[in-house]
Write a structure and sequence with these properties.
alpha+beta; 18% strand; Cytidine Deaminase, domain 2
Length: 194
């Protein structure tokens, strides 16, 4: 064994997959965040990756220089349905499905970095690790992923078990979803004659 190979340190497994997710994030087309994700199987083999970006064959926010959510003044963490992009976690799950690979029992590594220029006047000190959004949480649960590891670049890392993700989902739904008593006026088809 040479002297050089004895001195070289290999990154541990988590660091390696966080770095792979960070590499995927470099392809991100969102104007607010660079996010990448990788899924690894139970043997620790990377089976899919994804980054935040517009649906295939459509214009990307970075190319048109426009973010609808930013133009409408929508705060981070709200109204994701108005976002043009497909999140990295979603694209990672979709990419595994597109090639027919099962992700049941897998783990996901996510690298997320706020693009500070998109948030004028905000300090990096206020950034924390939020975890996947409410939509991605549901998809992670249904996909059968057992654990999610998330790194907010420059802030830290956090691991979520599927049990924790389910609890976070419940907490978010209870906090955000007002109870609406259903009445006929809420039914868009109530005036339709058959």
């Amino acid at each position: 064994m040479s002297q050089d190979s004895q001195m070289r340190e290999r990154p541990d497994r988590s660091t390696h997959f966080y770095n792979r997710a960070k590499t995927a994030s470099e392809r991100s087309t969102c104007l607010r965040r660079k996010v990448g994700a990788v899924i690894i199987n139970q043997d620790g083999v990377e089976i899919a990756s994804g980054y935040v970006g517009s649906p295939r064959g459509t214009e990307h926010c970075i190319d048109i220089g426009k973010c609808l959510r930013r133009e409408l003044g929508i705060p981070s963490g709200q109204n994701y349905e108005l976002c043009r992009s497909v999140h990295a976690e979603q694209n990672c799950i979709i990419n595994a499905a597109r090639i027919g690979v099962s992700i049941i029992g897998s783990e996901m590594y996510i690298s997320s970095e706020r693009i500070m220029a998109a948030y004028p006047g905000r300090s990096r000190k206020r950034i924390r690790i939020y975890g996947p959004c409410i939509i991605c949480k549901k998809e992670i649960i249904n996909a059968g992923i057992k654990k999610v590891h998330m790194r907010e670049e420059g802030i830290g890392e956090k691991t979520y078990t599927i049990k924790r993700i389910k609890r976070m989902l419940d907490d978010e739904e209870n906090k955000r979803m007002p109870v609406i008593k259903y009445t006929k006026k809420h039914d868009p088809l109530s005036n339709v004659k058959t």
